[in-house]
Every structure is written in C-alpha cells, then in structure tokens.
Amino acid sequence: MPNLHAVIMAGGSGTRFWPASRARRPKQFLPLARGSSLLQATVTRMAAVAGRERTWIATNPRQAETLDQAVAGFPRERVIVEPEARDTAPCVALAAAVIGAHDADAVLAVVPADHLIEPQAHFETLLQRAVAVATEHHMIVTFGIRPRGPATGYGYIERGERLDEASPAAFRVARFREKPDLDTARRFVGAGNFAWNSGMFVWTLPDLLTAMASGAPELAAATQAMQQAARAGDPQALHTAFARCPKTSIDFAVMERAPRVAMIEADLAWSDVGSFTSLDAVHPPDARGNVTVLAEGARAVVKDARDCVVYGEGRRLVALFGTSDLVVVAVDDAVLVCPKDRSDDLKKLIEHLRESGHGDVL
Amino acid sequence: MPNLHAVIMAGGSGTRFWPASRARRPKQFLPLARGSSLLQATVTRMAAVAGRERTWIATNPRQAETLDQAVAGFPRERVIVEPEARDTAPCVALAAAVIGAHDADAVLAVVPADHLIEPQAHFETLLQRAVAVATEHHMIVTFGIRPRGPATGYGYIERGERLDEASPAAFRVARFREKPDLDTARRFVGAGNFAWNSGMFVWTLPDLLTAMASGAPELAAATQAMQQAARAGDPQALHTAFARCPKTSIDFAVMERAPRVAMIEADLAWSDVGSFTSLDAVHPPDARGNVTVLAEGARAVVKDARDCVVYGEGRRLVALFGTSDLVVVAVDDAVLVCPKDRSDDLKKLIEHLRESGHGDVL
Fold first, then answer.
1. ipTM rounded to 2 decimals
2. Average pLDDT of the residues in A272-301
C-alpha cells in the first residue's frame, strides 16, 4: 500500500500504571505486550501494513527525548513532535500537515500507541479493508470491535447498513455513543449492532480536510497553515499554527460530525489496557486466576495465591504467598500493593504521594 | 565490672524474615532495631556493662566473613568462630574455653544476638544484679521476662522463693517449662509466678564448669580440651575438641539440670522478634495498626491501609493503598507480599522457592 501512512498517537501519560508508569515513562512505554512495549508492538503492527518508512509516531517533546526506551532505533525524522499536549484533534491535524507536505494524496491510519491487539494477521486484513473503503468510497473509516462483554469503559458505535457486497465487515456508522452505564451496555451488547469504539481511524488526506472544513473550520484552517509551514520548513510558523488548533478530540471535532463515516467490524482480542486489572485481556491468567507480566530479568513466584495481578521489572523476584485479589507492582525504585478493586482509584494515591513530598517517584 | 565478659551468640539464620534475611544475612544482621541491626544493638547494650574490650561475638565461619555488614569495625580478635553450627551448648563451651584461656575467673553473660530489649538503662541495672547474684551466690542466673500476655512461642520459667533481701527481683528457679499451649500459657500468666525464658544467662566460669561436669560430662571434657588448645594456640586441637561437643542446647545441657539456678525477674519490653508480625513489640503501630520498619534510604507510604507490616530497604518507596492485614517486604532483589496470618508459615514458601529453581534469592 504505497500511499498508506500510519500515525501512532503516543502523547498520553496515564497514572493508572504507577509505579511502572511515570511522567517520563507513559503507559505505552511499558513492556505490557508480551515482552515488548505497547508502543513497539504498535509500531510493528502498523509497519507490517504501511511499511517502516511510512510509519510515524506523534508525541510530545518530553516523550520524544526518551522514545528510544520504548522503540529502540526509531528514526527521528518520522517522529512528529507536538509542541504541547492539546488532545487528539491537534495531534491528527499536525500529522496530516506534516505528511501532507510530503504526499498530498496520502491515506492516513491513525491509531493510539497503547492498545493491545491480537491476532496480528487478522488485524492486517481488516486494516487493508479499511484502506480500501477509505479510498474507494471516500468515507472516514473507524474500527468497531465486536464486544466481548458489556464494558462500561469504552464508547460504542451503533452500526447502520452494510456498505456493499464487495466490502465484507464494512458498515455505515449510524451513531457514536458515549461510555454507557452497565444497563445500557448490556442492552447494546444484546442488540448485536453495537461495537466498541477503538479510537482507530483511516481516511484519505483530502477527505479528512473536507470533513474538517465542514465540521471544524478552525481546525481545518490551522491544518492548512501547518501544511504550508511544513512545506516551507518553518518550525516557528508550524508551532504558531498548532497553537491555534482547538483543544479537542478528533472524535468530537471530526468523527461525530462527518456525514459519511464507515465502520469496519473487527473481531479481535483488543484492549486499551486501562489498568493493571485489564491485563488479562492479553495475558491469560493461571488456573487460580493470577496474571503475571514480567519484563526481562524479573521473576515472580505465586504460591497459594488466587486472582492476583503481578507486574515486575528489573532483576528481582516478586513472591506472593497466600494472597488474593491483589495488584502487586515492583520496579526498581518503587513497589505498589493494592487490592484489585482499588486499582482504578490510583489517582488518589498519586495525589497523596505528590502532596506528601514523594513527587520524585511520580 | 572488670571480670564480666559478654558473649553474644550470633550463629542463627532464620527463614522467617525472608526476603530480608538470607543464608548469608541472618535475622541479627537486619536493621530491625530502630535503624541499627539487632546484633549492633546487642553489642552496644552488652558493651555498656561489660566494656567494649570484653564483648565477644560467637558465630559461624560464613557469618564471620560478613560481620562488618552488621557491626562495622568489630575487632576480629573478639570474634569466636564456631567451626560448624552445633546448637548453643557447644557455642557456650567454646566461648568459655576461649575466654577462660585469658581469664579463668571470668564472669560470662551469654545472650542471643537477635533480641530487642528496652529500656537500655533498666537492662543494665538488671544485668549488674545478675552478675552480683552469680558471683556472690555461685548460682547460674537466668533472665525471666515478666509476661505481657499468654505467649505460646516462648518457654516459661516457674520461679521459686525470693533469693534474699539484698537481691531484689532475684528468685530461685523452681522449674523450666516448655513452650505451652494457649490454655497452659493463660494459666501461667494468671498464676503470676511464671516468666518468659529469655535465653540470656550469667555465670562464673568455675560455676559453669562445675554445672557442666555434673550435668553434661562430655561437654565439660570437651570444654577443658578446648581451653587447653586455646591456651596453647592450637586451632586444630580446638576444632577437634569442638567436634566432640554433644549437639544440644545450653538449656538442656546445663540450665535444666543445674541444682542452683536463679532468675532475675525483668520487667522489660523484650521480644525475640520471631517474625515480621512481632515487630510491633518495639516499633509502635500507627493509629490504624500499621507497623513500618525502614532501613536508611527506604520510604513507605501507607494510604487507607490498616494492620499491615511494611519492611523496606534500599532507595525505594513502598506504597500500600487500601490493603489490610498484609506483610510487605521489599529489598533490592526480592519482594514478598503475604497475609499476616501466613507469615509464620514462610518455610513453605522458602521450600517452594528452593525446589522451583530460585535458590539464589534464599
């Protein structure tokens, strides 16, 4: 696919993986994907379809500095550095401008850096379908994940009619739906025509600019200014134009307003890995429900324990003996022990650490 | 007290403090005594009465090598190295021989290296009383701790009549009693004339040799042979004689058989620190029952947690968030998480670690 460029959005931070994640080491840098970082796994996945030379990482200046920790040897010239974190719409606009300066007819596949997806081969097939729909139908294409349960942590996509006979698994999008409460989620899953919104999109550059122009004119104007600045090689003008982008999400600015949106229905093992307790989506539990995720050199021994999550880094052994329903995280300079049902509430601990003079470990 | 020599028995290992304790780093090496090791605290305590130049450490060859970790700068010439671990009777016999070679009229105070005792000043007074009883009455003197509850983990001493008006808190020993079951322990404590057997003893060298000769003649013979070897400066003969000592405890070989045994009744905060859950004897819990013991450089943050024990070493922060009734131990190369009510059962985990190829962290 010579025209396809992959843009990996890697600017997020994420406190829900403390102490593994830090201000300078966001979730996508963590080795949560069977030994490699989520970001490395995403690069591998996208490069398999778009090619390494058309795979880009969009991130903020701080993470750009330490990118080698997560993706050793990724070429600097394909790192798109956002001058500041301004949500996903400015990120996509900047990527569109930089890539558009090289290739005005590019097809963009924009994906978050911190998702787990399996199997790889099936994802590749679906991505190729998405590109076909984007180029042939001139639609904006999103990926809807076939729900594996009534999750309340994801937005949903209500699908409309099938696009055509030639594009199996491709549907019109009827509506985007906010994260539902549990009853609503159950209804969605029961209805059969709802999918999890994965936050992965495919579009041609001209179609994206058209959608922006009608739905988010300020964003469209900033994008054009950035594209001119990128062509002229004027970083100052690029930054100025970036600062004019509205601080909003690409979902809100484009997807939910565009008249022609398609959905590829994806039956994948997929997780946005929201917290330690969601690791079981890709790391199968042992017979007693314990999930163990270890970076190279780390060891874990789980004895007489059940339904625990262990995450280890560094040359150390983590031993759980007789415990249940705990999250235990051990990295070089910090250890966390917390019941599973409190692990979504880590922000409270983070605040407490900041206020009590332990900001250096955040 | 020019004639008093303190002998600190430091040969024990102890798996109940894993992963803080290791084969080469026994419990008495751990910084469990308010920032210093138990052994260092014991050296300080005994040297305050016997003098630094008459304070000895008896230990095995392996721990002798790493003694500086626990007591920096302790002089090599006052380390008594047991050729092999053979229980406490051979240890005391060797110490008696080595010290007796210098000073045949020495008074020996023999104490374990791994006890916590407070307050220091009161202990000093009691030790001086014990020395007075040993020298004036020619009795073997033991310390009985006034019980703070019906503990089943300690042996008990049943006291007899008061020794005399001149020695307050000194009694004849009526009987030594094994570790009791809970009902028996309650009866002992209720009766008022029982004390915890602290395993600390004071005697003159001639009285010890007399008691050995009548109660444990093999041990007495070996002791005399060791004393000759020590005077002659013949380490080979010393080792040979040591190997002839029966492998038994000093309690069994001497104390329980000696006709004239006295007890100093000691109202001290005392603990033999049997496990992590016994640290509260000397490290007071916070308002929610959490006990925190940290070596230099380590930090702990306990948030919304109750009745937990945290032990930390090294430059790391241990965070407990929302937990209850857990023991959490974090050292450089290992982390243990275990419910308090399983912490006395650590041997089972240790065996499992050994059998599953993780013997390097033991």
1. 0.83
2. 90
What amino acid is encoded at B136 in this protein? E
pTM (two decimals): 0.83
Q: How far apart are CA A91 and CA A93, in angstroms?
A: 5
For residue B85, count CB atoms less than 10 angstroms from its CB and return exposed for 0-12, middle for 13-18, buried for 19 or more.
middle
User: Chain A within 8 Å of B304 (Cβ-Cβ)?
Assistant: yes
DSSP label at A75? Answer: -
User: pLDDT category, B2, cuts 50, 70, 90?
Assistant: low
Report yes or no: A84 and A59 within 8 Å, Cβ to Cβ.
Answer: no
Q: Which of residues 282-301 of B touch A (CB under 8 A)?
A: 299, 301
* Among B322, B336, B348, beta carbon nearest to A342: B322
Which among B315, B339, B349 has the least Cβ separation from residue A319? B349
pLDDT at A1 over 70: no
Q: Do B317 and A19 touch (CB under 8 A)?
A: yes
Distance in angstroms (rounded) separating the CA atoms of residues A345 and A313 = 22
Facing A303 at nearest CB: one of B299, B321, B352: B352
Q: How large is the average pLDDT for residues B149-163?
A: 93
B15-37, pLDDT tens digit by residue?
789 999 988 888 999 988 877 89
Average pLDDT, rounded, for chain A = 93
Name which of A72, A83, A85, A64 is nearest A36 in CA terms. Answer: A72
Q: In chain B, helix, strand, coil percent, each to 5? A: 40, 30, 35
| Largest Cα span, chain A | 64
Residue A273 dihedral angles phi and psi, to the nearest 5°:
50, 60
